[in-house]
Structures are given as structure tokens and as C-alpha cells.
């Protein structure tokens, strides 16, 4: 079964990126709010197919240490990164449909911004244990993307060799796998990052879910949001639906 945390499906209202940045989507964006993306690249299409959904990437808003502006925390080819919010959206809107999911009142009040900043500091750049995530998520537990990943990569994917790579030297997993698509496969674990970050802020997620098993669309269905807003692109009627669920 692809979706392990069916949760609650939202309907997205239409807005613009300008509305969002200016506080026109219910309130101004705040620490702990989530952004979701539907993309068109090969990796986006793979993730959307593997999860039977339209969502291929998720990220969370934080205030980085040192007084930096509100930024987007995410797992990308560069590892765990933060990018000023307006800059991140300017880059994403060229080939992604962007969605804003503001936290509901109670979860929003539970967020401790300093805990999110500390989470980033602990996991920044290559400090994020991608190899460990891969070992846990792809090999030690039933991750819903593994079969699809093997099918997607075909002969290039050494399914028998990769677990050994992880156990012997974690970084070799990504040396072998990420090189195939310029590191883009790091994004397979964007939803683990966001889920773990939400849990680190002391937000109570139903379950709580095992972050290793959460796929991007499930983050959008946690039931902790005040609503959802589509910020650009052609109108998507049910962006957080799961096909066959």
C-alpha cells in the first residue's frame, strides 16, 4: 500500500504568490507552515507516480539562527538547506505548482521557533543523515517507494548492492544513487525531514507517524492546517488526493 497515513484531504483555495507573501492567505506566513509542490521534472513525475498523487515535494518555514528572514527548510540535492522564502518561491514557480498550508491555531501556538532553528542547525547540509534515512526507509522497513524506485532506475539500480553500501559506509549510497540524476534523489526524503521537523517543534501529529514512512502528499493530510492555497499554475481540483485511496 503506497499511502501509509491517509489523513485528511484539503481543498485548495486560489491565491497568488504575492497574496501569500503579503499575508493575504488568511494571515502572514509563519514558522511551522508548510509548502507543497507539484513538479514536472523526471524525479517529480517519479515521486508523483510512486505515491499516486500530485505532490512531489514538501518544505517547512523556519527562522534560521542569526536573525535571517523567514526561510524555506527543505531536503534538496545540496542536503538540508534554508533559502529566503521569496527567493525559494521565485525559483520554484517556473516549473512547479506551489501550495501554502498554514498551520491551524492550536498547532501554530504549539510551535517553538527556536526548536525549528535548532533542528536545522543539527541537520544542515551534509549533516543530515541521508544514508541512515535510506537504510531505515528503503531497506529495514517497508518503504512504499522502493519498488517504484527500482522500476524507475532499471538496470542502473543495484538493488542487491545498495544495502551493503549503506551498512559499510553510508555516504556511498548517495555517491551511487544520487549521481544518476545530479543528486535529485535526495528529495525522496523531503517528507521525512518536514515530519521530523514538525515533531521537533512539539506539534502533536496524529499517530504520531513514523517519519521514515511518510511520503510528500501525506504531509499535506496531517489534519493540522487551517486550509490550503494554490499560489500559481493551472487550477488543480484535488491536489492532495490519493488515487485509489
Task: Put the structure in a nutshell.
By secondary structure, the protein is of the alpha+beta class.
Can you put this structure into words, describing what you see?
With 245 residues, this protein is of the alpha+beta class. The protein has 2 domains: 13-124 and 190-230, endopeptidase fold (from Nostoc punctiforme), CATH 3.90.1720; 131-179, no CATH class. It has helices spanning 17-21, 42-50, 85-92, 105-110, 113-123, 130-140, 146-153, 161-168, 171-177, 190-200, 216-219; strands spanning 13-14, 34-39, 57-62, 71-76, 79-84, 96-101, 229-230. A 7-stranded mixed β-sheet has the order 1-7-6-2-3-4-5, with helices on both faces. Helix 8 runs antiparallel to helix 9 (171-177). The N and C termini lie close together (9 Å). The relative contact order is 0.25. Residues 128-141 and 165-185 have low confidence and may be disordered.
Amino acid at each position: 500500500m503506497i499511502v501509509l497515513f491517509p489523513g485528511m484531504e484539503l481543498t485548495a483555495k486560489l491565491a497568488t504568490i504575492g497574496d501569500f507573501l503579503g499575508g493575504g492567505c488568511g494571515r502572514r506566513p509563519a514558522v511551522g507552515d508548510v509548502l507543497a509542490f507539484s513538479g514536472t521534472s523526471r524525479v517529480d513525475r517519479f515521486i508523483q507516480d510512486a505515491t499516486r498523487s500530485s505532490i512531489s515535494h514538501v518544505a517547512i518555514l523556519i527562522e534560521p539562527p542569526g536573525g535571517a528572514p523567514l526561510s524555506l527548510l527543505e531536503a534538496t540535492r545540496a542536503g538540508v538547506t534554508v533559502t529566503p522564502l521569496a527567493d525559494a518561491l521565485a525559483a520554484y514557480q517556473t516549473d512547479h505548482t506551489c501550495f501554502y498550508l498554514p498551520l491551524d491555531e492550536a498547532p501554530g501556538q504549539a510551535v517553538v521557533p527556536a526548536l525549528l532553528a535548532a533542528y536545522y542547525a543539527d541537520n544542515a547540509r551534509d549533516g543530515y543523515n541521508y544514508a541512515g534515512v535510506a537504510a531505515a526507509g528503503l531497506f529495514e522497513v517497508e518503504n512504499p517507494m522502493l519498488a517504484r524506485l527500482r522500476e524507475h532506475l532499471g538496470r542502473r539500480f543495484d538493488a542487491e548492492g545498495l544495502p551493503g553500501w549503506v551498512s559499510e559506509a553510508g555516504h556511498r549510497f548517495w555517491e551511487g544513487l544520487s549521481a544518476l540524476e545530479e543528486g535529485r534523489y535526495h528529495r525522496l526524503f523531503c517528507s521525512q525531514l518536514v515530519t521530523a521537523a514538525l515533531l521537533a517543534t512539539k506539534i502533536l501529529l496524529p499517530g504520531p507517524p513514523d517519519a521514515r514512512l511518510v511520503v510528500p502528499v501525506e504531509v499535506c493530510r496531517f489534519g493540522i492546517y487551517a486550509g490550503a492555497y494554490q499560489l500559481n499554475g493551472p487550477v488543480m481540483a484535488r491536489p492532495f488526493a490519493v488515487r485509489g485511496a
